[in-house]
Amino acid sequence: MNMYYEELYNDEIEKYYLMALMDLAAGSTEKELENAIKLYETLENYEACAGILKAINENKYYNYDYIRTKKNNKGRD
After folding, report:
1. DSSP string, 37-59
2. Count of the separate structural domains present in the chain
3. Smaller CB count within 10 Å for the chain: N or C?
4. In degrees to the nearest 10, what's the CA dihedral of 64, 69, 72, 74?
5. Structural domain of 71
6. pLDDT by position in tens, the chain (length 77)
Protein backbone atom coordinates (compact mmCIF):
# COMPACT_ATOMS: atom_id res chain seq x y z
CA MET A 1 0.00 0.00 0.00
CA ASN A 2 1.56 3.32 -0.96
CA MET A 3 1.76 6.16 1.56
CA TYR A 4 -0.87 8.34 -0.14
CA TYR A 5 -3.45 5.55 -0.18
CA GLU A 6 -2.61 4.58 3.39
CA GLU A 7 -3.14 8.18 4.54
CA LEU A 8 -6.52 8.38 2.78
CA TYR A 9 -7.50 5.02 4.26
CA ASN A 10 -6.61 6.17 7.79
CA ASP A 11 -8.37 9.51 7.30
CA GLU A 12 -11.53 7.68 6.23
CA ILE A 13 -11.42 5.45 9.32
CA GLU A 14 -10.86 8.51 11.53
CA LYS A 15 -13.86 10.27 9.96
CA TYR A 16 -16.22 7.39 10.78
CA TYR A 17 -14.64 7.00 14.21
CA LEU A 18 -15.34 10.64 15.11
CA MET A 19 -18.88 10.50 13.73
CA ALA A 20 -19.58 7.36 15.78
CA LEU A 21 -18.19 9.03 18.91
CA MET A 22 -20.48 12.00 18.30
CA ASP A 23 -23.41 9.61 17.85
CA LEU A 24 -22.60 7.95 21.17
CA ALA A 25 -22.30 11.33 22.89
CA ALA A 26 -25.70 12.28 21.44
CA GLY A 27 -27.30 9.17 22.91
CA SER A 28 -27.00 6.45 20.27
CA THR A 29 -26.60 2.96 21.66
CA GLU A 30 -23.87 0.47 20.90
CA LYS A 31 -26.54 -1.75 19.36
CA GLU A 32 -27.45 1.00 16.87
CA LEU A 33 -23.80 1.36 15.91
CA GLU A 34 -23.44 -2.42 15.57
CA ASN A 35 -26.39 -2.32 13.15
CA ALA A 36 -24.56 0.40 11.20
CA ILE A 37 -21.51 -1.86 11.01
CA LYS A 38 -23.65 -4.63 9.51
CA LEU A 39 -24.95 -2.18 6.90
CA TYR A 40 -21.46 -0.99 6.00
CA GLU A 41 -20.23 -4.60 5.80
CA THR A 42 -22.98 -5.29 3.26
CA LEU A 43 -21.81 -2.24 1.30
CA GLU A 44 -18.19 -3.44 1.69
CA ASN A 45 -17.18 -0.15 3.32
CA TYR A 46 -14.66 -1.68 5.71
CA GLU A 47 -13.13 1.67 6.62
CA ALA A 48 -16.49 2.70 8.10
CA CYS A 49 -16.68 -0.59 9.99
CA ALA A 50 -13.20 -0.09 11.43
CA GLY A 51 -13.94 3.47 12.55
CA ILE A 52 -17.26 2.60 14.17
CA LEU A 53 -15.80 -0.45 15.90
CA LYS A 54 -12.94 1.66 17.26
CA ALA A 55 -15.49 4.12 18.71
CA ILE A 56 -17.52 1.31 20.30
CA ASN A 57 -14.41 -0.14 21.92
CA GLU A 58 -13.15 3.21 23.18
CA ASN A 59 -16.59 4.17 24.46
CA LYS A 60 -16.02 1.71 27.29
CA TYR A 61 -13.04 3.73 28.55
CA TYR A 62 -13.73 7.41 27.87
CA ASN A 63 -16.30 9.89 29.09
CA TYR A 64 -18.15 12.28 26.81
CA ASP A 65 -16.03 15.31 27.79
CA TYR A 66 -13.09 13.48 26.19
CA ILE A 67 -15.15 12.86 23.06
CA ARG A 68 -16.13 16.53 22.77
CA THR A 69 -12.48 17.57 23.26
CA LYS A 70 -11.34 15.11 20.58
CA LYS A 71 -13.96 16.44 18.14
CA ASN A 72 -13.04 20.07 18.81
CA ASN A 73 -9.31 19.43 18.42
CA LYS A 74 -9.67 17.55 15.13
CA GLY A 75 -9.53 20.73 13.05
CA ARG A 76 -6.28 21.75 14.74
CA ASP A 77 -4.26 18.71 13.56
Report:
1. HHHHHHTT-HHHHHHHHHHHHHH
2. 1
3. C
4. -110
5. 3-76
6. 577 778 888 899 999 999 999 998 888 989 999 999 999 999 999 999 999 999 999 887 766 656 666 666 765 55
